[in-house]
Design a protein that fits this description.
15 helices, about 5% strand, mainly alpha
């Protein structure tokens, strides 16, 4: 108990020292960080699986094994990396910002490597190469995404400013995800097979597009590093005792707000990524209209752009938690309608995607502010602040959502 009191005093005396309010350039810089993340991660969620199955001819069952093993490793790697970041001493450039520079180039290179097709290799060889490059990419993405995600808590302590940062992060995420979706459509070309029209991936277009996006990610991380500032003075890392990491994770499990936001994000990501992983297959093979694939982007991101204009007023009246819950309820209803409707009309499908996009946008615009709030809550309850470790565990639950989506998607392909 005495130790907890001392930790709380350290938190109050050393941690919360806010030097100044955030500026607009901070918001732009913070948005560019997630823009840079999505330059690579957008490729993973939108086209990587299609590349594995259609270009490398890897069996979906093998991909299920790959994604499962990668997520099991993430359970270990994310926690370790969170502790590494939290244990780093605060330098003149801050605790979190330098990682954006150090890891941006390795991440960009690993992104390109995932899409390298070595001529003459067997399918087994391609699977082995895909396994190594995918796992390495995941580790490097963690190395840059966890410090970036922890950055919001040291840019400002004001609730309204954090809410604004969350909105700008959502903007950066949305803009960063667009190129991958455009590239997915641009790479699909129509061919004639046995007298019938079909679609296939144009590999030269794909690898050029991936390389350009990798370069843009490095630029985005650099500008995020330059245009953000760590204003909140954090206490120097304490000497870690054996078993302390396990105690911190146990404390996170006991935090109801943290567990709820993790579970909600995991389920939202699982549902969103499952549907998005099938969009390309749906418009290519089911609707036989791959040219309409771009309209999914409009229905998914246009609502977010419009909501940004007045989201702060709605949130001020209803609250962050309430607007997120209502938004996800709307998205869930839209998906249920699609499930029971079983339409063969692509435009009816797109109209339901629009309602789903509206609902999801409310959650996406505020989820990062809620995550930061839960980290603050845990600090008040325990007297210990572990931004990177907390964010690492939250990041892992989001990755679990991606894994659930990938496993279900590949299982459906096999079925």
């Amino acid at each position: 108990m005495q130790q907890k009191i001392e930790n709380a005093e350290t938190s109050a005396d050393v941690y919360i020292q806010k030097t100044s309010g955030i500026k607009f350039i901070d918001k732009i810089g913070y948005a560019l960080g997630d823009f840079a993340c999505l330059m690579s991660f957008g490729l993973v969620t939108s086209i990587l699986q299609t590349y594995y199955t259609d270009v490398l001819k890897i069996d979906p069952g093998w991909l299920m094994i790959l994604f499962t093993v990668a997520r099991l490793w993430d359970a270990v790697n994310d926690t370790i990396w969170g502790r590494v970041v939290d244990s780093k001493k605060v330098g003149t450039k801050g605790r979190y910002r330098p990682w954006l520079i150090w890891m941006s180039v390795p991440l960009a290179l690993s992104t390109v490597l995932m899409f390298i097709k070595i001529p003459g290799m067997s399918v087994t060889g391609y699977f082995a190469f895909a396994t190594v490059t995918y796992v390495v990419y995941g580790m490097l993405y963690t190395a840059v995404n966890i410090p970036y995600g922890s950055l919001a808590s040291v840019i400002t302590t004001k609730e309204k400013e954090r809410s604004s940062l969350s909105v700008f992060r959502a903007i950066g995420s949305g803009l960063g995800g667009l190129p991958a979706i455009f590239l997915s459509s641009f790479c699909m070309v129509k061919i004639i097979v046995d007298g019938r029209e079909a679609s296939e991936v144009n590999y030269p277009r794909l690898i050029i597009g991936v390389s350009i996006m990798a370069v843009l990610s490095v630029i985005g991380f650099y500008l995020s590093y330059r245009w953000t500032k760590e204003r909140v003075q954090t206490a120097p890392p304490a000497v870690r005792q054996k078993g302390e990491t396990a105690k911190i994770i146990k404390a996170l499990f006991k935090s109801k707000p943290f567990v709820v936001i993790c579970a909600a994000s995991m389920l939202m990501i699982a549902g969103q990524m499952f549907t998005q992983s099938y969009y390309l297959y749906l418009f290519k093979n089911y609707f036989n209209a791959p040219e309409l694939y771009l309209l999914v982007t409009v229905t998914s991101y246009a609502p977010m752009v419009l909501l940004i204009l007045f989201a702060h007023k709605i949130i001020a009246k209803t609250g962050k938690k309430e607007i997120c819950a209502l938004g996800m309820l709307l998205a869930g209803v839209a998906n249920f309608v699609l499930f029971f409707l079983k339409t063969t009309n692509p435009y009816v499908f797109l109209s339901m995607c629009l309602f789903c996009g509206i609902g999801s946008s409310f959650f996406l615009l505020q989820v990062w502010a809620l995550v930061t709030d839960t980290i603050d809550y845990n600090e008040v309850k325990t007297g210990v602040r572990e931004d990177a470790t907390s964010y690492a565990f939250y990041s892992f639950t989001r990755k679990l959502g991606h894994t659930i989506a990938a496993l279900l998607a590949n299982a459906a392909l096999i079925w």
